[in-house]
Amino acid sequence: MLKLENRLSISSWSLHRCLGPLRWTVWDNEAQNQRMEEESQPAMFELLELPKLAREHGLSYLELCHFHFPSRDESYLRELRQAFDDTGVSFHTMLVDYGDISSPDPVRRASDIHYLKGWIEAAAVAGASAVRIVAGEQSGDDPHAIARSADALRELRQYASGAGVEVVTENFRELTGSSVHNWSQVVERAGAADGFRTIVDFGNLPPQEKEQGVRYGAPRAHSIHAKPSYAADGTLLAEAFLAQLRIAEQLKCEAPVSIIFDRDGDMWEGIERIKRVILQSQP
């Protein structure tokens, strides 16, 4: 089993106050299309520098959020791919944080699927192993929404396979973040039996379903999003965090473990604090 220290990763969200503007994608009801809204953030370094910085911080993988990409031009994507190749860090996942493929509106759903295919193409050029697709923003109690999401995920999986990229999902947003049951329904219907995988985000699991969620997700994990909980005074709740990590280890989960830090303070320091706790989970 690959040692945990060799499976460490971060999401670029853990550095969202360092990478410059956040380019959020939103649905424009009037135009019936996607548009971009930019949120200003400090630019301490560029996305192209992140693979080198990750290697310097002992990370072997990276997951990059789509809103951190300043361009989808082929030349930029190839430059990013070269930055990964030069360092030996793996571009594990393109995290596309937009899309409601569970929408009952056929225009919105079709447009979002088309938009997501564009990011699959970009991920292939940039050398990403996979693209994380949000399963949807409709209620997880709506079986029709689950069916629409699963159908779209199967379509996107087929499209991505032609580009040599995997499609995965996550317990994220309303459809799959509301309960382990709803999450599992989407994953199973989208093709778990033939290898469809999911990101397991500790922070998105309902409080009463933390253990159940890790036990369901770990055997199907593309990556673990290791986001700890904190006490009111800001203290990291290490015991509960380590318990989740140890369940995944006991289940022989070898997926990369992405450190998720979104608190105040220096972001690299916050990442390092979480990393030290993660490494305590090793037998």
From TrEMBL:
<dbReference type="Pfam" id="PF01261">
    <property type="entry name" value="AP_endonuc_2"/>
</dbReference>
<dbReference type="InterPro" id="IPR050312">
    <property type="entry name" value="IolE/XylAMocC-like"/>
</dbReference>
<protein>
    <submittedName>
        <fullName>TIM barrel protein</fullName>
    </submittedName>
</protein>
<dbReference type="InterPro" id="IPR013022">
    <property type="entry name" value="Xyl_isomerase-like_TIM-brl"/>
</dbReference>
<feature type="domain" description="Xylose isomerase-like TIM barrel">
    <location>
        <begin position="52"/>
        <end position="234"/>
    </location>
</feature>
<dbReference type="InterPro" id="IPR036237">
    <property type="entry name" value="Xyl_isomerase-like_sf"/>
</dbReference>
